[in-house]
Amino acid sequence: MLSRAAVLHRRFATAVRFHAQGVPTEVLKVEDIGLLPKSLGQHEVALKFLAAPVNPADLSMVTGGYGIKAALPAIGGNEGVARVTAVGPAVTSVKVGDRVIPAVAGFGTWRTEAVAKEAEVLAVSDKIPVEYAATLAVNPCTAYRLLADFAKLSKGDVIIQNGANSAVGQAVIQLAALRGIQTINVIREDQHYGETVEHLKGLGATIVIADHYLGSADFKRLIADLPAPKAAFNCVGGQNGLEITKVLARGGVSVTYGGMAREPVMTSTTALVFNDISLRGFWMTEWAKHAPVEERKAMLSELAELMAQGKLRSWVETHPFSDFDAALEKVVNRSTKRKVVLLME
Amino acid sequence: MLSRAAVLHRRFATAVRFHAQGVPTEVLKVEDIGLLPKSLGQHEVALKFLAAPVNPADLSMVTGGYGIKAALPAIGGNEGVARVTAVGPAVTSVKVGDRVIPAVAGFGTWRTEAVAKEAEVLAVSDKIPVEYAATLAVNPCTAYRLLADFAKLSKGDVIIQNGANSAVGQAVIQLAALRGIQTINVIREDQHYGETVEHLKGLGATIVIADHYLGSADFKRLIADLPAPKAAFNCVGGQNGLEITKVLARGGVSVTYGGMAREPVMTSTTALVFNDISLRGFWMTEWAKHAPVEERKAMLSELAELMAQGKLRSWVETHPFSDFDAALEKVVNRSTKRKVVLLME
């Protein structure tokens, strides 16, 4: 016997899938994935997706360069937010009407509907815009962990980061500023440089600097009045990542969470041997696999609350799900600095 | 009133000094450094040097590229062994006739005689050859700490190291073999390649491989039967150091203790982010500054005992102190793979 709630309106679902790994613009196809099942299992939930971002990491998974390989054919997208439309008889952690986000990587969020196990989703605040909820689980959480897990950072301390206008970088700036931690932010100098500097300063950045100044006398003068950074956050690599490790305080740590330059991560023998720095890596997916669910929920609540209060903002642009190809092009061509989020309704 | 033991025979002392930082063959001069003082202070000891090595790190200190800057004019040499010829009235930790090694960096060991504070020397076994005693404090101790402090290594575990025929590398091979730890040893392929391979295998090396094989399919096949290495020891840097981090086990650590290639230390974003490896540095001088003296003494005793038993051998060649220039040339030109040790008597 199934409860009423578990009897689904049978609907067609649409998804963006790939049947082989390859160039995203070639292998990703908007497809009808068929009818949802007629009823839910004991611990299943039915979901109607509201929003999902197109992240660079999602595209790495499509090309095959990511730490997770998808079973093919696969639905793209790892992040998103959905509304619970029905629950199986034994479901206790969420109820119909709740907003949820995937608790696991590789969910396949570029779709209109889904049926999932209760354990595969986490309830999330409905006090924040859907495009914020859809992008809460990876980037703001990565920023949170970077600031929490690698160095003991207190009011007045300094961190340095490259790719500072990335979604993680912007969250780092805001979360650091809320705690009185000063940030040295390295970005590329492009045609939007002035605008980006203003934006990051508006978020609370202490110093914003173009990457070609790294290692220069000007750079040394600019940071001379600040304590040496206790931590560096690197999502670029190559020469840029090397330079930010050279200004670390004795015993400082450089944490890599991305590799936009597609070059090796570098540091100097001198920094490692004589200045006792260390290099670490961070991957939110791996953290989430091992962290107690209560710790993760508490972090998500804290971040959502900051968003609801306007203290943690994201630079987002939204596209209707029906315009998937246009949204994808913007991410592939890096023609926007904003996070690209698909809206499903 | 001075005790009899504290009244010195007044002797001339000879030393190799530099009055300015620069090219070692140009700035290092054998000089008469004058008469020793007529008597010893309460906590002073008089030393007659027996042997001292010429290490690459000593030369870095002469050129100015080392983590310690010498006060000029400075006597070269950080390591060595001396005999205590007289002690001040309050000295308790060593007695006349004892062999001692410097307890501190920057001692200036390229000399025939010295007066030092009791706390600046450590007694050392007289059961081992002087050329072993003179080279005990840095390289074998570095190998000891590399194996002890960075990864939990048990019987059957594997480490990988480059510069494996360095003095540290050879000590790592022997100490690892004594504990049942397997070693993958990367060396350069030069005209002495065959001889070096045989030598390292004779010390207990599991696998010895030329560096140009790193990253190749052959290399992967060669190490396929071993567990993935839990630790990498890097004294080279550049591409070589990058490749050895790529084969580390999940959560493995790469420890840099030298930079012979004079290139940045590199790893990959993938290894850091998806394989959770870390990069650390090790500097014996810094360790010695912070370690309890009893821990250091215990390590020195253990290593000297292994040497006395023939279980820890060094590849050493000796030169009379009067031939300093010839000895220096051999180190500068890297025309020997052996550790170059000066004999003062």
UniProtKB/TrEMBL annotation, chains A, B:
Belongs to the zinc-containing alcohol dehydrogenase family. Quinone oxidoreductase subfamily. The keyword Mitochondrion applies. It is found in: Mitochondrion. Its main location: mitochondrion. GO terms for molecular function: enoyl-[acyl-carrier-protein] reductase (NADPH) activity. The lineage of its organism: Eukaryota, Sar, Stramenopiles, Oomycota, Saprolegniomycetes. It catalyses: a 2,3-saturated acyl-[ACP] + NADP(+) = a (2E)-enoyl-[ACP] + NADPH + H(+). SUPFAM superfamilies: GroES-like (SSF50129), NAD(P)-binding Rossmann-fold domains (SSF51735). Residues 22-342 form the Enoyl reductase (ER) domain. This is enoyl-[acyl-carrier-protein] reductase. It is an enzyme of class 1 (oxidoreductase). Pfam families: ADH_N, ADH_zinc_N. GO terms for cellular component: mitochondrion. Its EC number is 1.3.1.104.
